[in-house]
Design a protein that fits this description.
This protein is of the alpha+beta class. Helix 1 crosses helix 3. The chain has a four-stranded mixed beta sheet with strand order 2-1-3-4. The chain has three domains: 72 residues, Arc Repressor Mutant, subunit A (Orthogonal Bundle), CATH 1.10.10; 94 residues, Glutaredoxin (3-Layer(aba) Sandwich); 43 residues, no CATH class. It is 35% helix and 6% strand. 34% of the residues are buried. Bound molecules: FE2/S2 (inorganic) cluster. The site of FE2/S2 (inorganic) cluster (FES) has 10 residues, from helix 5.
């Protein structure tokens, strides 16, 4: 099953047929959940984003039926709902796999290896951007920066982080996902399917035992600036993972290490600072003639 690139609900210049309704039992269940979401907000239309995650959790993507449902519950037009669905890339508009594998190909990740990872995954999986493997397990996508640049290049699976990846570690990751192995992200809770992830994003509790405790916090590389600001000394050394490290091994805390490494990455903190280089002190630039 390689999905086509045509998107549901789009027909230029042609009147659309009404979206098919949910079966009664599904509608009743979704409506109860939807009312619970709406009650969290002083203004009902503020509930649109979590409601869209709710309908995405039902079908794996946001169908026209789901959009119609959200519009009815929130007293919005379907055009208003569609405008939001088409704006945010976290909402899918066509059927996809259980695991959305997003490779960050924004500038930093791209130059650190993200472009190579994406190209090799395309070849390895036999799919292009936005396409799904024949077993329905993996949808491969370019993703934009997810603010994890200090762990570049980053791969995300259902929005969980896999840091410091290489082409080889990324290929092992997708193989494990397709084989149904127990795959743990570098940081964050263990993986669940895209539908289950969507339900959590709709604001319902993650009921998997231990999942909340596993979520952890920021990785060590992200905390270096905070540590320096608190007066702690800079790291004694900076790791340069590209110097002499075999490229077929995942770097610090990558996919197959369930306990994130305490090692710092090569881009954590500068070694040469104004404190260590008196010839170039920090401070406001001097005016001409001062
Ligand atoms: S550029 Fe990839 S996470 Fe920021």
């Amino acid at each position: 099953m390689t999905t086509s690139s045509s998107e549901q609900g789009v027909s230029l210049g042609m009147p659309q047929l009404p979206a098919p309704a949910y079966p009664d039992d599904v509608r009743a269940r979704l409506e109860a959940d939807g009312r619970e979401i709406i009650a969290r907000y002083p203004d009902s239309r503020s509930a649109l984003l979590p409601l869209l995650h709710l309908v995405q959790a039902e079908e794996g993507h946001v169908t026209r039926t789901g959009q119609q449902f959200c519009a009815e519950l929130l007293d919005l037009t379907t055009a208003e709902v569609a405008a939001v669905v088409t704006f945010y890339t976290m909402y899918r508009r066509r059927p996809s796999g259980d695991y959305q594998v997003g490779v960050c190909t924004n500038t930093l990740c791209a130059v650190m290896g993200g472009d190579a990872i994406f190209e090799e995954l395309q070849e390895h999986l036999g799919v292009g951007n936005g396409e799904t493997t024949g077993d329905g397990k993996v949808t491969l996508e370019h993703i934009e920066c997810n603010a994890a640049c200090d762990f570049a290049p980053v791969v995300m699976v259902n929005w969980e982080f896999f840091d410091n990846q290489t082409p080889a570690s990324a290929k092992r990751l997708v193989d494990d996902l397709r084989a149904g192995a127990d795959v743990r992200p570098t940081r964050g809770a263990r993986l669940c399917t895209f539908k289950d992830t969507a339900r959590i994003l709709a604001g319902f509790p993650d009921e998997r035992p231990g999942a909340v405790e596993e979520s952890g916090g920021a990785g060590p590389a992200s905390l270096v600036g905070l540590r320096l600001a608190k007066g702690e000394t800079a790291p004694a050394r900076v790791v340069h993972p590209r110097a002499g490290r075999p490229q077929d091994e995942p770097r610090d805390g990558a996919a197959h290490d369930p306990s994130p490494s305490e090692h710092l990455s090569s881009h954590d903190a500068p070694q040469d600072t104004s404190a260590s280089d008196p010839a170039h002190p920090a401070g406001p630039a001097a005016e001409e003639g001062e």
